[in-house]
Amino acid sequence: MQKKEALLYEKIEHKNVHCFLCPRHCQIAPGHYGYCGVRVNEDGKLYTLIYGVVSSIAADPIEKKPLFHFHPGSQVLSLGTYGCNMRCGHCQNWQIAHVVYEREKDELREELIPPAQLLQLAKKENCAGIAWTYNEPTIWFEYTLDGAKLFKENGLYTVYVTNGYITSQALDMIGPYLDAFRVDIKGFNNDLYKKLAKVPDFRPILEAAIRAKKKWNMHVECITNIIPTMNDDDKQLKDIASWIRTELGENTPWHVTRFMPYLEYRNLPATSLKTLEKARKLGYEAGLRYVYTGNVPGDPGENTYCHKCKKLLIERMGYQIKQENLDGNRCGFCGTPVGDLIV
Asked: Which residues share a beta bridge with 256?
């Protein structure tokens, strides 16, 4: 179950293969791996080595993803594997993301779970859906595609918690089976993406988010982990907020989250509350209706307020909902629709 011929590749000369799952478009020689570390060329065929390989699994509140306007209060079966198509210097899950699987697999903890068993687990844990998270789900594509089809057939929702680094071909293949696309917008220039994530061009990420929403009608929420000295300048924050407003719409939630010193950037300070408040203000000034503070439990910026009457609709403490004042997906006070809220 671990090794399976990959989707979305083509054979080229000298038994090399061209993978077009993500925008890196790796050309891989026999015996070599793609950048993600989990796809290998064996004698001119590309294989995924992680079909069914689960590194982490839990029943989480959907708010942990974070998704605040998508089935609030529900539990979601959350799972991850090994590898990633980015190399973020502040990755909180680097132990599973920064892995060349075949080389390190004997030292890794893993569980082999077929898609059908995931459905059983979700029902057992009273989960309303499934989220592929913890590391980048795109590189687990064959497994997530099979799982997404199965969950949709059985009336449960499906979520990608993603860095957005996916090709249009891959997104179009899984698009009919994904309900939500929670996407990182790490900054808003190539210099930042090159330094932070080792990505040469961030435009495909923006294009994927737009395609997910407009072509496949997925629920989209964006997140930016605000890192002091790297992406906390007014220009990048304004540019992100304006792009979300223009391309995804004023009702699209934007989560601005607190960075904590870690890994390559452990010398940097944690994001100040003042900076997070500035980011929220810039988001609102750009025309967004819902801008949320993350990684600061108890902050008022975790809550959802009616954009019209300004009253409290959902009070949160971390990932838990403390009170709710909704009438379906409308404000329980004035009846105004809470944009893009799916209950």
From this structure: 224, 293
The structure tokens listed for 240 are 């992100």
Task: Look up residue 126 and give its two tokens.
Answer: 């009273």
One pLDDT digit (tens) per residue for the chain, 343 residues: 589 999 999 999 999 999 999 999 999 999 999 999 999 999 999 999 999 999 999 999 999 999 999 999 999 999 999 999 999 999 989 888 988 776 676 777 778 999 999 999 999 999 999 999 999 999 999 999 999 999 999 999 999 999 999 999 999 999 999 999 999 999 999 999 999 999 999 999 999 999 999 999 999 999 999 999 999 999 999 999 999 999 999 999 999 999 999 899 999 999 999 999 999 999 999 999 999 999 999 999 999 999 999 999 999 998 999 999 999 999 999 999 998 999 9
CA distances from 97 to 79, 107, 247 (A): 13, 14, 30
- DSSP conformation letters of 103-156: HHGGG---EE--HHHHHHHHHHTT-SEEEE-SS-GGGGHHHHHHHHHHHHHTT-
Residue 82 CA to residue 237 CA, distance in Å, equals 31
Note whether 40 and 47 are within 8 A (CB).
yes
The pair of structure tokens assigned to 134 is 């913890």
DSSP string, 220-274: EEEEEEE-TTTT-SHHHHHHHHHHIIIII-TTS-EEEEE----GGGTTSPPPPHH
What is the rounded end-to-end Cα distance, in angstroms, of the chain? 36
Domain ranges of the chain: 4-48, 53-302, 303-343
Count of other CB atoms within 10 angstroms of residue 302: 23
Is the Cβ–Cβ distance between 127 and 75 less than 8 Å? yes
Please choose, from the candidates 306, 191, 285, the residue with its C-alpha nearest in 3D space to the C-alpha of residue 234: 285
- The CATH code of domain 53-302 reads 3.20.20.70
d(CA 38, CA 43) in angstroms, rounded, equals 16
